[in-house]
Amino acid sequence: MDPSLPSQSPFSNQGSMPGSNSGMSSPRGDNRSITGIVQDNQNNGLKDVRVELSDANGAMVGSAYTNPFGRFEFNRLAPGTYTVVATSGLQQASERVDTTNFSNSVSVRMQGAGKPADGIDGNSVSIAQYRVPAKAREAYRKAHDAVEKGKMDDAHKHLAKALELCPNYAEALTLRAVLALNQQDSQAAVADLDKAIQADGNYAMAYMVMGSALNMQGKFDEAIRSLQHGQSLAPNYWQGYFEMGKSYIGKADYPDALRQLERAQSLAPADYPLVSLLRAHALLAMKQFPEAMTALQAFLQKEPQGPNSDKARKMLEQAQAYVASKK
């Protein structure tokens, strides 16, 4: 079996707009609960941040959005270990919680409005980010919101405005590169990412998106170098590990691919199924058919209908047929 890899970029639509999802978990346990707050580095609560709760097996058991004070709550939980993942735009942070007690609390730290909030992780902000004019930053935010809503024409319009005001705006150049990758235009993406990295060599996401573009071009060694640089700047960004997994699969280094993908799976949102599909590719190449079948079933459970679902079902059928033939 030599299945082709999924082509989607993991960088598009990473943030979600506030919606009507409830923070209530499935009523399969007792009355344990997790309450929490998402705060910036100045201890300000961050509103409208999407929060997901997954159990020890990685299955999502609840989701919510923070209230105006940054607070969220999950109720009716079974005893066990859970992971809280907060996502806002390109930012992501996570914390583990053990529901030993009936009432448990957690605090999640993310970048807030006190500093430029364009995907910056950690406590440091580069000089380049501080130099971006406020109007350019506002145009970028409008572009990012438009991407989340699927309004790509509006996104391009706002990005053009942001880059007209600040031609060396690394975050805007990187987002335009993401849109180019979604159109399979890796050359345009690489051109924008080169500019972004020259403008701000500390912007981790530019290196990670560059890795995705280089993977698309089959330049796996170059992709790995770019992704390693991005990981050194932002070690908790799951997208970098995901793309690194693709790079190693491209080099037929499947054990290293699986190590990267396991790290990606520990950090990625629970509802992002492509990590399981990519793991299945590596496992099939290693002829670890039972493990590959488990990964494919996990993918199809989360995405029964999608651009890769039919291919995944065929891969699963082939693996099942092979295992049956050996009995």
Report on the architecture of this protein.
There is one protein chain. This protein has a domain at 32-109: Immunoglobulins (Immunoglobulin-like, Sandwich), CATH 2.60.40.10. Strands 3-2-5-6 form a four-stranded antiparallel sheet, with no helix packed on it. The chain is an alpha+beta fold and 327 residues long. The chain starts with 31 loop residues before the first strand and ends with a helix. It has helices spanning 127-130, 134-148, 152-165, 170-182, 186-199, 204-216, 220-233, 238-250, 254-267, 274-285, 289-302, 309-325, and strands spanning 32-39, 50-54, 60-65, 71-77, 81-88, 91-98, 103-109. The radius of gyration is 20 Å and the shape is globular. The protein is 48% helix and 15% strand.
Task: Describe how the helices and strands are arranged.
Elements (H helix, E strand, L loop, with lengths): L31 E8 L10 E5 L5 E6 L5 E7 L3 E8 L2 E8 L4 E7 L17 H4 L3 H15 L3 H14 L4 H13 L3 H14 L4 H13 L3 H14 L4 H13 L3 H14 L6 H12 L3 H14 L6 H17 L2
Parallel strand pairs: 1-7
Antiparallel strand pairs: 1-4, 2-3, 2-5, 5-6
Helix pairs in contact: 2-3, 3-4, 4-5, 4-6, 5-6, 6-7, 6-8, 7-8, 8-9, 8-10, 9-10, 10-11, 11-12
Features:
327 residues, globular, 7 strands, 15% strand, 12 helices, 3-stranded mixed beta sheet, 48% helix
